[in-house]
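Input (structure):
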């Protein structure tokens, strides 16, 4: 568990307005990978020149229960800006949710893949390091960040395979929902259960290419950062997935943060977010 220190007052959970009411920072560039208004990527680049030859790079994936009406990439603006201030380039992707034309299966997954792979085309122009990419996702975005790292496990004939996936070296999942079957079987999760059918489609093997639990081992280190007071992600989900992934041979570390709900995980200034930044820094450290 990550310590949060002694406090004199009772802990009060953050609400979304506590985050979104802050002055909104702006990205440095916006790039497109399709015609839909959500088929875009925001690029955040630190000022000046990188101390190394290229900026360490984070692929960021927002949550919102896989629904565009709940959240888009702009929910991650404050987290992206904080990473930029700490010397990381951030490739903050958007995608069509299950409630958007073209979203669901396979569109949501194809969007996440296409947005990530677009990074190859712009890396040189912005001095971005592709050698040790960290995928960082929050909530449903934690699932997609892990799925992006597991894409190389898809069979070549899968409609989600998408050619040559951009290699992910490390995943930091913040309150993620990687095991879709477990989410669907858990009415106490904050996203509900009906959304899973819209995400994976009506197929006999619907989890085989969509749920990270079915693609293990993904072959890269995984850090799971979860709030002990998260009301969206039931507390049992992260330990259960961690144990499942370890049994398959993956390197998984679970970080449970006290006095932390769902919002704190992506709010700069909180213990959970500072832990996430530290994990990104460790993952991108030159060998």
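Output (sequence):
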């Amino acid at each position: 568990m990550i310590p949060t220190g002694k406090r004199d007052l009772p802990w009060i959970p953050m609400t979304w307005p506590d985050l979104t009411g802050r002055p909104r920072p702006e990205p440095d560039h916006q790039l497109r990978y399709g015609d839909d208004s959500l088929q875009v990527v925001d690029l955040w680049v630190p000022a000046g020149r990188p101390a190394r030859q290229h900026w360490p790079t984070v692929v960021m994936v927002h949550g919102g229960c896989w629904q565009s009406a709940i959240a888009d990439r702009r929910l991650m603006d404050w987290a992206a800006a904080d990473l930029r201030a700490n010397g990381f380039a951030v490739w903050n992707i958007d995608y069509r949710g299950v409630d958007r034309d073209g979203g669901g299966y396979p569109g949501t997954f194809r969007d996440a893949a296409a947005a990530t792979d677009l990074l190859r085309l712009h890396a040189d122009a912005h001095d971005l390091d592709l050698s040790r990419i960290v995928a960082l996702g929050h909530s449903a975005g934690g699932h997609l960040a892990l799925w992006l790292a597991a894409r190389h496990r898809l069979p070549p004939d899968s409609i989600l395979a998408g050619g040559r996936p951009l290699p992910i070296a490390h995943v930091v999942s913040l309150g993620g929902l990687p095991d879709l079957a477990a989410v669907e079987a858990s009415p106490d999760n904050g996203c509900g259960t009906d959304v899973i059918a819209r995400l994976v489609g009506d197929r006999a093997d619907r989890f085989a290419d969509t749920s990270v639990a079915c693609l293990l081992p993904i072959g890269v280190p995984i850090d799971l950062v979860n709030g002990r007071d998260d009301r969206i992600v039931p507390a049992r989900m992260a330990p259960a997935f961690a144990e499942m992934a370890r049994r398959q041979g993956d390197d998984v570390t679970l970080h449970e943060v006290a006095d932390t709900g769902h919002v704190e995980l992506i709010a700069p200034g909180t213990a959970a977010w500072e832990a996430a930044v530290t994990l990104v820094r460790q993952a991108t450290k030159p060998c």
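Notes: The chain has a mean pLDDT of 95. The first strand starts at residue 29 and ends at 32.
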